[in-house]
Structure formats: C-alpha cells, structure tokens
Amino acid sequence: MTSFLQKFKMFLYGAFLFELEMHLRKVKDTYEKSFMLILYADMLGIPILTNYYSFRILPYVINNLEPWKKGISKEFDILEELSDMH
Amino acid sequence: MTDFLSTPAPYVLIGLVLYYIAYRFYARWIDKRVWEPDPKRSTPATMYMDGVEYFPVNRYVLYGFQFKSVAALGPIVGPVLAVQYWGWLPSLFWIVIGVIFIGWAQDYSAMFLSVRNEGRSFGPITYNLVGKGARSVLLSYLFIYFWLLTAAFVYILAATANGFSGSFYIIFITLLSGVILGQLVFKARWNIFYATILALILVAIGYVVGYYVQFPATNFLGVYGSVMFWSIIFAIILAIAAIVPLPSLILPFNYLAFYPAIASVALVIISALLSPISGVSFTRPAFVGFTASFTGFPLWPLLFVTIACGAISGWHSLVSSGTTSKQVESEIDALPVGGGAMFTESIVALSAFAAISVISATVLGANGYVLGAATLASGILGKALYNGFVLFFGAFLLFMGVTVETLVIRYWRLVLADMVSERKGSIRILGNKYVATTLILVLALALIATFTFDYIWEYFGGTNQLFAAFALLLVATYLTKVKKPSWYTLIPGSFMIVTTIAAIAYTAYLFLSHSFNPTKPLTALQQLFYNFLMGYGITPYPIVSAFDVIAFLVGLSLVILSITMGYYLFKSILTYRKEAGITQPIGGKTTMAKPGED
Questions:
Q1: Could you give phi then psi for residue B426, rounded to 5 degrees?
Q2: Which residues of B touch A26 (CB under 8 A)?
Q3: In chain A, which residue's Cα lies nearest the Cα of B72?
Q4: Which residues contact B47 (CB under 8 A, 6 or more apart)?
Q5: Closest CA to A72 of A49, A46, A47
Q6: What is the DSSP letter of B309?
Q7: What does the pLDDT look like over B271-310, one tens digit per residue?
Q8: How far apart are CA B270 and CA B382, in angstroms?
Q9: Exposed, middle or buried: residue B46 (CB in 10 Å: 0-12, 13-18, 19+)?
Q10: Residues B66 and B331 sit within 8 Å (Cβ to Cβ)
C-alpha cells in the first residue's frame, strides 16, 4: 500500500520534474535514431554506403533494429508535438 | 452569520465539496457506465512501449504532470474579468457547474478516446472519424487560436509589469536563474537538488531586487505608452525564449517558476478559506445584471467564453490526447489523471474568483487578481506584508504568462510550418523559425495596440471553448460509433458549440457595427488609443475602422470554420447512429441492430 507521503512525492515529481525527464528521453532518442540512421539507413531504402562499422556494431544493436525502423517510420502529426509545449 | 456569508470562504468550500461529490459519484458513474475501464486491457503505454513517448507512468506522477500542463494563466484571467463584468455569483455558478458537467468530461474523455485509439492525438483521430476536411479546419483554427492567445497574454504580461513596478526584475532574474540552472544541470551535470537550491536563492534575490528597485514607475509613459513599452519588452523576451533550445531556458525556467506558482495558489486558497477569521469580505456585487459593466456584454453567451479555463478549456483536450494518453499505465487511471487534474485546476479558478471579489478597484488586465490575492493573504499574515504580497502575486502572473507563451509561440511555428510545407514559392519562408516567431509577435502587438483587450479576450475564450466543443463532439462521434451512450458529451458539446458560435458572432458584430461609427471608442480603454494617435496629429477613425473590419473578418472566419467543423461532426454522429441502427433518442438505453463490435 502506497502511503500518502509517497503519493504526494510522486505528485510533486510529476508536477516539477517529469517534464524534464520526458525531454531528456526525447533528446536521447533523437541521438540514438540519428546514430542508427548513419549506420543502417540502407535498411530503410536510403542509399548509403554500408561501412565497416555497420557490421562491427551490428551484433550490439540487432535488438534495436526493429523498434528503430518502426519509430522512424511512424505516423507523425504536429498535434502530437504538444508534449514539448504544454 | 451574515458576515460569514459575505466572505469568499463558504463559496470556495461549497465549490470544493461539490467537486468532491461530482468526482466521487457522477464521474465514477460515467467512467463505469460508458467507458467501462478494464485494468487487464493493454494501454498504448504498455502495448507500444518505446521508452520515449510510450511508457507506463504511475498515476500520481501523471496526475501531477497533467495538472501542471493544464493550469496556467487562463483560469485566473477568466474569473477576474467575469466577476468585474457580471458579478461574482454568475461567475462562481459557471465555474462550478461548468467543471462538474462539462470540464472534467472533456479532459477525461479526450484522454480515454486517445487511449482506445492507440494513443493517437486529435489530428489523426479527427482524420479517421470525420475526414480530411475536418483536419484542415482544425489546423486553421489553431492558427488563429494561438495568435489571439499571444495577443491576450502579452497584454496581460505588459499590464502586470506596468501595474507593479519591480515585478519585471523578478521575472528577469528568474529567467537568468533558469539559464544558470539549465547550464548547471545539463552541461555541468550538477545534482538537481543543489542546482535547484542555488537557483531558488537567485530567485529570492530577484524578489528583493524587485521590492527595492521599483523603476520605472507605473504609467511612466502614460497608460497607453507604458503598456506598449512593456508589450514590446515581453515580445523580445518571448522571441528569444521561443527560439533558443528548450533545455537552455524554457525547461529550467518552467521548473523554477512552478515553485512560487504553486505557493501562490495554495496561499490564496488557504487565505480565502480563512477569510472569516481575517475579516476580508466581498466588496463587489453578487450580481451586476444581465448586461456587463464596462463593456455591455450580455451574460449569455459571453460569460461562458469569458471564463474558459477553470470551467472547461479546449486546450486541455490537446494535452490529454497528445501527451498523457501515451503514458497511462492502466485504463482505470484515466479518471484520476484526466478528470482529477481538471477538478484540481478548477481550484485555481476558485482562487481567482475569491481574489477578485474582495477588491473593488478596477485595474488593467488581470491586475485585480494581484491586489485581491494580496488583500486575502495579508489579511491572514499581517497587513504590513501587503506590498510584498502585491509583488509576489504580480510575479506569479508574469511567471504563468511567460511559461505558457513561449510554448505557444513554438507551437504556432509548427502549425505554420505544417500549413506551408506542401506549398511552393516564397510563402515557404513562413516556416522559418525566425520569420514565424517575428510574425506572431508583430501580429499580436498590432492587436494589443488597438487596446481592445476585452473583445480580444472574448475571441480567444470563444476559440478555446469551440475547441472544447469539438473535442466533446468528437468523443460523442466515437462513442456513437462503438455503440456506447454519448449523451454526457453530446449535450454539453452541443451547448458549447451553440454558445460559443453565438459569442464569437456577437463580438464580430460589435466590431462590424463599430467600424461604421468609429467616433466613439469600443470601450473606455480604447479612448487611450484614440488619444495616443491624436497626440501625433493622426485621425484615429480610418485606422480603427480598418482594424474593426479585420477583427470582424477574423470573427467571421472563426464562425465559418466552427459551423463547418460542427457540420462535419454532427454529420458523422448521425451517420454512425444510422449505421449502428440506434433508434432511441440520445440518452436512452442504446438499441443496436446487430451485436456490437468495439
């Protein structure tokens, strides 16, 4: 059972710091997506030359390939950018 | 007993009790009967978890976030104006009834609609349910909405900075503290706890500077000149804040500003509840009449758009459907997060109602709130602190205004860029961030310069409320499609759309009629604009007439857009009703032609 104090702390975290957390998650994601794009853009049909590092790093990022492809080709709507502004 | 009833305490208390009852019974009943939340059902946060947009968040954290997102300057300015126009009783009535039957329903339903539609926001949902035309109307609508919002809020910022000398230094030093905090946390990687303490010390220094350096004096360039001076200053600050990256200024500033903001709201509410002890009582009439003082606005429909946030606000549906819906951990969290945050936000409106009701002075913009809040707080904590509280609450208004405005300008840029992205030629330059930012601020300054704030606020409130009406009707469309009772959003949605179209049409009509007879100013305030122009030997009438025509055209386009959108939505509702074979009237138990698929 969560105590009132814990609930209140969570409320304060939501009101004060959650916005910062969301932004940092987005920044991290942008860097990660860009990194993957440099290495594996050919998987999305963008003609780049596959280089040594693409193969060297592949075993480490193999699990991220599908989420990355899904994320980068996701439907985009400007109304969803609201999370950056409220 | 009479004394007790002439203080804000019983009315604020009644409001709070009614909110609790409405949440506990009506909202839960709707939640169970209409949306039937299933804790075992996956939400977008768990289904599409990517750790960036979609990830489950605890309901208390999300509630805090939602509250911060929806509570801004709106719930303060609306009641401040309405109490001065029509008296405190109708204003209180609309705040309480509005949030109980309409406000929470919109925030909560918009969130649930998005949760049941893969966490999508209103744009794609509108596209799916209603069609491509409706989405374009929605974008055009936002375009005008943000312009009006910027004009209204920059005017309020200017009026506050002018009315309370020294308050500007507080916000300026807080902005600088925000920059320092951003650097310490994001670049130097300080622990946020220590960085916050340092930044808050700087903010406190800002208050001390503001208290002692009261320069320039109020109205140092005359009322008109001073308000325009501060408008330009704030336009420059907002332009810089809207252009620089979020972590450099906006994020740390928003975080810092929320400390004094939450303290201000809590202080006003507690002081209002203790007003029988302090002896601070109502000085304004309970009911002025069906026609407003100062402006002559009729109670219906304009009260219902003057108080937008606090009773119901379309802005919230954007937050509910665009952000928080992607992080709702379980369907049973939608009510406490969406509905609960709206009820809490309405408490901010109650605080504004209490503050403005205890002073009788008529001042520019939302300055009445500052004086009233200072009266309430100093009544409890000591009259000697009055001047300090004036500055404290003045700074609170500035914090709220700047926080919202920088983000509004960013969003306007996105909308503008989206609108011109598929076009060719030089119009594409409007998508440039410097051009778009300058454009909205120049357009807003032009609106402010005419000194027709009361009318602009009605346009802004109307646009906001229409957005709420669209959200409610969109939810009704969805509920009809999935064969669920839709009356609880359809009836308020219909009321809101009729009322707000009437309000915008009426304001547009006032502008049009004034354009034919510009010799008399629209309000006493506009006389200052006339005097300013005449001081330079310029005849104001052609300029005012031209502005009136433009303002009328803005109103007309809003009415046309609203009728178009209303037509699309009602048409979809009727189509889905027909498809579902619903024969009984709205509100009755739905009868289906075939067993429903969800």
A1: -70, -15
A2: 52-53
A3: A86
A4: B54, B118
A5: A46
A6: T
A7: 999 999 998 999 999 999 999 888 889 999 999 999 998 8
A8: 14
A9: middle
A10: no
B-chain residues within 8 Å CB-CB of A63? none
Identify the DSSP state of B184: I
Is A47 inside a domain boundary? yes
Domain that holds residue A39: 22-84
Tokens of residue A84, six digits: 């950056």
Inside any domain, residue A44: yes
Angle between helices B367-381 and B386-420 (to 10 degrees): 140
Domains in chain A, number: 1
A10 is a domain residue: no
Among A1, A9, A16, the strongest candidate for a mutation testing the B interface, having the largest count of B CBs within 10 A, is A16
pLDDT at B361 over 50: yes
Mean pLDDT of chain B: 90
| Domain-located, residue A13 | no
Task: Report the distance separating Cα B277 and Cα B260, nearest Å.
Answer: 25
Superfamily name with CATH number, domain B2-165+216-580: Amino acid/polyamine transporter I (1.20.1740.10)
Task: Name every residue whose Cβ is closer than 8 Å to that of residue B187 and which is 6 or more positions away in sequence.
Answer: none
- Yes or no, beta carbons of B407 and A86 under 8 Å apart: yes
Report yes or no: B450 and B533 within 8 Å, Cβ to Cβ: no
Beta-carbon-side half-sphere exposure of residue B351 (alpha carbons within 13 Å):
29
Nearest chain B residue (CA) to A30: B52
* Chain A hits for B420, Cβ within 8 Å: none
Best residue in B59, B61, B189 for a mutation probing chain A (most A CBs within 10 Å): B61
ipTM of this complex prediction, to 2 decimal places: 0.88
How do the domains of chain B map onto residue ranges? 2-165+216-580
